[in-house]
Amino acid sequence: SLASFGAAARGTLDVTGPESEVQVAGLIGVSGEGESWVNVNNGGRILADRLETSLLAGGRAHVSIAGVGSELNVSQNIHIANVGESAMLVSDLGRVTSAHGRIAVGAGSQGHVELHSQGVWEISNNLYVGGSEFGPGGEGLLKTSDDGRVQIGNELRVFDDGIVDVNGGRINVGDGALPEIGTLRVGQNGTLSGTGEILGDVLIDGGTLSPGASPGILSVSGSLTQLDGWLALEIGGPTPGVDHDQLVVGGDVSLAGIIQLIFVNGFSPAPGQSFDLIAPGASYNTRQATFDIQGLTEQQAQSVVVIDGALSFLETPLTGDTNYDGVVGIADLNNVRNNFGATGNPVFGDTNLDGQVNIADLNNVRNNFGAVGALSLAVPEPATGALAIVALIPCVLRRGRRFSTRERQKVDQSPKKR
C-alpha cells in the first residue's frame, strides 16, 4: 500500500525497466490524505488483485503506465478516485488490464483517465464513469487521444457527471474489434448505458444502447449509427429525463436495428400525447429499423406513430392517411401514386397493409379524401427519409414483419432495461 496519510505526506513508487516487477497479493492503495505517484515505465510491470486511488478526502493520486512492455495487471478492480482527486495516464503502448473499472466512485471525487499514443486499457467486464454499480459518484472523465484505446467486455455506464471523450481514439464495448478513430462501438454482448455525455460518434453494431438510468438523457456529440442490435427507450410519462428516456445527438441519426419502446410503471398514453425520444442535430433515417413495443395493449400499439424521433399516439389510425398527419389529402394521393406497384413489408403508400401499393390503396385515399383524424402533426416531406418511420411502425405492429431466423432470435432474446 502506498497510502500517504496526512495532508503533507508524499509517496512514490517507480517501476522502471524490463527487469522490474512488483507483485501484490491484495490491494494497492495509492494516496490517503496526501499525494502519491505510481510510475511504470520502459517495460516495468505491476501485478495486483486491486488498485484504488485517493482513499480519503483531500487525497491526490497519479498513476502513469508508459512505454512498450509497461503493464499494470489487476485481476479484480481498478478505482480511479474513490473520494479525492486522481488521474491515470496510459501512453506510448503502455497497457492496463482489469476485470472492472470505476472512475470517480464517491460523491465529490474527481477522476480522470486518459489513453494516449496507443495506450490500452482492457476491461473484461464493466466500466463505470462518474459512479459505480451502486449509483452516481463524482466527476469522471474517460478520454482517448492520439489513438488511445479502450476495450470493455460487457457494459460501459456513464453517469450524470461522467464524460467519455473518444474523439482522438477508439473504444469498443462487447465483442468485436476496435472501430475507427473517433468512434465508440457497441458490439454483440455489449451495452452502452447512462445519462452522461459521449464526445464523438457512436456505432451500435450488434449490442445495446440503453440511454438513461430508468429513465434519463444521454448525449452524443457526433453521429449515432445503428447497423444491428438494440436501442432501448423507456417511457413512463411526458417529461424527458424524468419520465422517459431521451437521446440528444449532435450529428446524423441512422437506425437500422431493433428499436424497443418499453412502457413502464403502468403508464398508459393518451391519444394525441407525444414524446421527444430522439433529438437529432442533423439528418434522421430509420428506413431499415424494426420496432418492438412492450407494455401496451395491441390496440394502443396500433396507434403509435413516430415523426423525426417524436413518438405520438393516434386515437384511431385513419384509413388512407399514408403520412400519419391526421388528414387524408393530396399528399397521400401523391404517396400512393409515386409508389404505385411497389411491394414489400412495409412499403410506403400501402394503406391496407397487404404488402403492395395498388388500386385498393388508391381507392382508400379517394374514398376517404378530406377525412380528418384525431391528431394533426407537422410531417416532413417524404424525401427526408424520416417519414419512413411513420409508415413503418403500424406495419410492423398490425401486420407483423416476416423475420429471418436470425432476426426472430434477436427479438426473442431482446434485452431488458436495467
Oligomer: single chain
* Largest pleated sheet: 13 strands, parallel, barrel
Task: Say how many strands there are.
Answer: 35
- Uncertain spans, ≥5 residues at pLDDT below 50? 374-414
- Average pLDDT value? 83
Annotation field: number of helices: 5
- Note the overall shape: elongated
Rg result: 25 Å
Describe this structure in words.
- This protein is mainly beta.
- It has helices at 298-301, 330-338, 359-367, 388-399, 405-412; strands at residues 10-16, 21-30, 35-41, 45-53, 60-66, 71-74, 77-80, 85-91, 95-98, 100-103, 110-116, 120-123, 126-129, 131-132, 135-136, 139-145, 149-152, 155-158, 162-165, 170-173, 183-187, 191-194, 197-199, 201-211, 217-220, 224-235, 246-249, 253-255, 258-263, 274-276, 278-280, 284-285, 290-294, 304-307, 310-313.
- The strands form 4 sheets. It has a 13-stranded parallel barrel.
- Strand 14 and strand 15 form a beta hairpin.
- The longest helix is centred in the C-terminal third of the chain and has 12 residues, at 388-399.
Concise structural overview:
This protein has 418 residues and is mainly beta.
Provide the fold topology:
Layout: E1 10-16, E2 21-30, E3 35-41, E4 45-53, E5 60-66, E6 71-74, E7 77-80, E8 85-91, E9 95-98, E10 100-103, E11 110-116, E12 120-123, E13 126-129, E14 131-132, E15 135-136, E16 139-145, E17 149-152, E18 155-158, E19 162-165, E20 170-173, E21 183-187, E22 191-194, E23 197-199, E24 201-211, E25 217-220, E26 224-235, E27 246-249, E28 253-255, E29 258-263, E30 274-276, E31 278-280, E32 284-285, E33 290-294, H1 298-301, E34 304-307, E35 310-313, H2 330-338, H3 359-367, H4 388-399, H5 405-412
Parallel strand pairs: 1-3, 2-4, 3-5, 4-6, 4-7, 5-8, 6-9, 7-10, 8-11, 9-12, 10-13, 11-16, 12-17, 13-18, 16-19, 17-20, 18-22, 19-23, 20-21, 21-24, 22-24, 23-25, 24-26, 25-27, 26-28, 26-29, 27-31, 28-32, 29-33
Antiparallel strand pairs: 14-15, 30-35, 34-35
